[in-house]
């Protein structure tokens, strides 16, 4: 649903849906022992609506996952048909979601032409059915420590609503879609986990956000799908833009009703896993959570519950 079509009634309905979802998903108190669970992360998240879980994943876990994801990105049939990004025209930043979705996509043949062709014609690529193609994703994004943190923030047992695996190119094509400033309008409260599979530095870049922007008076700006840097600077000149400093193994947690964007990497491509947790199914989008039955059966009971509405 494009933001410029959102009514005040819709926004109010999100809050009602959120509270109904919380009532339907009571919290869990008898969690298994989790030695590395951090109350500090939960405290930060509640206070600031963002937090960084330091050294959350072991390097060997991410290394194994990256090998599996690299393999999938090397198989054209695993790649979702990406948007063909036109050469820089100065207009991309003003596109609405409807316009972005109408942009032409690469054909299966073009996807089969390989990495260099993709880098020359797209800003990023994503995996099809990531949970089915990369079974090792499930225990990572459904880590019990993450589920417990999401429960503490949402006030109910979390529902996994969206998973994305994206490789963003360090190229010179215009930034588009979620690379521009936006908010997620699927829920009254949403927790998004960002797991980066590269060393994060000034070359790879990271997700940026405007702290506290979900508390801004909505009358300060018109609802629209994407905001340019110029829009943000003009409307919120004193807003605090945050670029988190992350090490390999860290995880960024963010309530994405705050304005945010994926910064373009420079010099080195960036691969990220993104998972959304809500109190109810997403109202405007939602992603494919298809998986193999044997992988679902292998999960802990609480992990299965995070997949059940």
Characterization of the model:
The protein is α+β, with helices and mostly antiparallel strands and 309 residues long. Helices cover 31% and strands 15% of the residues. The strands form 2 sheets. A 6-stranded antiparallel beta sheet has the order 1-7-4-9-3-2. Strands 6-5-8 form a 3-stranded antiparallel beta sheet, with no helix packed on it. Helix 2 packs parallel to helix 9.
Strand content: 5-15%
Q: Would you tell me the overall average pLDDT?
A: 86
Which structural class matches the secondary elements?
Answer: alpha+beta
Q: What's the Cα radius of gyration? A: 19 Å
Compute the number of helices. 12
Number of strands: 9
Task: Note the run of SSEs as H and E.
Answer: HHEHHHHEHHHEEEHEEEEHH
Write a brief structural summary:
This protein is α+β, with helices and mostly antiparallel strands and 309 residues long. Helix 2 runs parallel beside helix 9 (144-154). The chain has helices at 8-24, 39-48, 59-73, 97-101, 108-111, 115-121, 130-133, 137-141, 144-154, 229-235, 293-297, 301-305, and strands spanning 50-53, 124-126, 159-168, 191-196, 207-210, 241-242, 251-255, 260-262, 270-278.
Could you list some keywords that capture this structure?
6-stranded antiparallel beta sheet; 309 residues; 31% helix; 9 strands; alpha+beta; 3-stranded antiparallel beta sheet; disordered N terminus; single chain
